[in-house]
Amino acid sequence: MTTFKNFIAGQWVEPTTAAYFENRNPADTRDLIGRFPRSGAEDVARAVASAQRGFAQWSRTPAPLRGDILRRVGDILTTRKEELANLMTREMGKPLAETRGDVQEGIDTAYYAAVEGRRLFGHTVPSELRNKWAMSYRRPIGVCGIITPFNFPLAIPTWKMFPALVCGNACVFKPAEDVPHTGHVFVEVLLEAGLPPEVIQLVHGFGEDVGAALVAHPQVPVISFTGSTETGSKVGETCGRMHKRLSLEMGGKNAQIVMDDADLSLALEGVLWGAFGTTGQRCTATSRLILQEGIHDRFLGMLVDRVRSLRLGDGRVAGTDVGPLIHEESRKKVERYVEIGRSEGARLEVGGSRPSGAGLEHGYFFEPTIFSGVRAGSRLEQEEIFGPVLSVVRVRDADEAFAVNNGVKYGLSSSVYTGSVHTSFRALAELDNGITYINAPTIGAEAHLPFGGVKQTGNGHREGGWEVYEFYSETKVCYVDYSGALQRAQIDTYAG
Fold first, then answer.
1. Among 176, 251, 184, 240, which Cα is nearest to 207's?
2. What single DSSP character describes residue 312?
3. Residue 36, phi then psi, degrees to nearest 5
4. What single DSSP character describes residue 356?
5. β-bridge pairing 410-411 and 454-455
6. Helix (H, G, I), strand (E, B) or coil at 7
7. What pTM does this model have?
8. In what order do the strands lie in the sheet with 143-147?
9. Which residue among 102, 360, 361, 458 has its CA within the 20 to 30 Å range from the CA of 410?
């Protein structure tokens, strides 16, 4: 058994608490990956002090050179892609095809960020006064607290850290306690690529210990958090009181709409991938399936038949379609929602239980589950489950479908399958989500486009794409008056 350490002040160090927690394979809990630091506020304070020193150095490094280091990170990730995919699958369960995609997303984000090191544009504009020059530029902010979830152990940290780093900030990284090994290896990759040691700090531990201390630290002006809406609200309260810059990416209750004129075979592949990929543990997962009544029965039958054939198991074994949930509490939560669905009168079409197959008894597996006859407004239809449970809602037409889609407190992703250009463009305009797909599932974000949602999914900021670079930098406006005289803007120019 390996005992891992934090990375603080340029060294791998034990936690000041002297406490550790175990990290086990969710597909087979007999497989112990290692012991990781259960750190505390003192460890966070040491990490922040070091990151401040790293920021002083890194912020003076030219942005194109910062981008060059991230390009090397992308090269290393490319070389180690299969190794990283395997360790991620062992740690959090999703099949290798998905963890390879997780690594590829990090690679894409690295190369995109490297280019942005030469594109941190400001504006040069004419002054209203003679012999006066005016411009703006973007400069780094300071130490960024990076708090990430378990479901994309590599991709989400890269979404947050690469833009923060290319903008010139230092980072204190707190990965989810369910996936500490991936976080450890990711920091090793950053250091191998040449990132100055005090620019990155890794502090393992639990949210109530490390996450809360990082959010509340007065010398951490920027927080980026991905997690539950409930926890995000608490983070927001602290950051609001302390006037911190905050990016929240939280829950979703995403719907795939299938209209009568849709390509049903294509829509079937979309909902299988959207609902049961990552065992439903995505903020963009398809949690609701809204079917127009003309194709409802036929499509539901097609879907149930396919779901019955999905194979559960260790994601490192060829042929596995669905891996385990991340831990026992997640499985119990799914079981509670199955009972809620039954109590609300929804019809259980398939699944609903822990599987009994050989080789599954030591993991946190749960059968892919479908409820039909789900009422709009019911708990099953409204609340985020974060597991392999799909709620099917029957609607009459596009108007009702769009209303059902919009009738939840979340607003991350949506999907419409239709052959109608009219319906497609109505959906793009009317669905109340940060992301809408036409004839594609609710998942599939690309690294060079903004990612995020509306309503209680977030607080208006975006991961990825060009917008995130504005989050991790501040605008400074500069004036140079070379007239040799006092010139008063708005007064001397328009005095008459």
1. 176
2. B
3. -125, 150
4. -
5. antiparallel
6. strand
7. 0.97
8. 11-13, 6-8, 200-202, 170-174, 143-147, 222-226, 245-249
9. 102
Does the annotation mark 144 as catalytic? no
363, 26 contact by CB (below 8 A)? yes
Range of the domain at 62: 6-250+458-477
Catalytic residue among 144, 283, 367, 381: 283
Amino acid code (one letter) for 271? V
Q: Contacts from 464-468 at CB under 8 Å and sequence distance 24+?
A: 464/109, 464/159, 466/116, 468/159, 468/163, 468/247
177 as an active site residue: the answer is: no
DSSP H helical segments within 4-95, as ranges? Answer: 41-58, 63-79, 81-92
CATH number at residue 404: 3.40.309.10
Q: Other CB atoms closer than 10 Å to residue 1's CB: what's the count? A: 7
Indicate if 223 and 283 belong to the same structural domain.
no
Distance in angstroms (rounded) separating the CA atoms of residues 5 and 255:
41
What is the C-alpha to C-alpha distance for residues 211 and 397, in angstroms, rounded to an integer?
Answer: 45
| 78 plus 222 within the same structural domain | yes
Nearest-Å Rg of the Cα atoms of the chain is 24
Bridge partner list, 257: 290, 416
Taking CA atoms, 222 is separated from 54, 146, 148, 455, in Å, by 15, 9, 14, 21
Residue 463 shares a structural domain with residue 406: no
pLDDT in tens, 414-463: 999 999 999 999 999 999 999 999 999 999 999 999 999 999 999 999 99
pLDDT at 496: 52
CA distance 112 to 465: 9
The segments of the chain whose pLDDT lies below 70 read: 495-496
- Do 417 and 470 lie in a common domain? no
353 contact partners, CB below 8 Å, separation of at least 6: 366, 367
Tell me, what CATH number does 197's domain have? 3.40.605.10
For 17, the 3-state DSSP assignment is coil
Question: Quick check: 267 and 418 in contact, CB under 8 A?
Answer: no
Question: How many Å apart are CA 100 and CA 316, to the nearest integer?
Answer: 11
Catalytic hit among 105, 116, 249, 349: 249
Report the C-alpha gap between 190 and 200 in whole angstroms: 8
Amino acid 127: pLDDT:
95
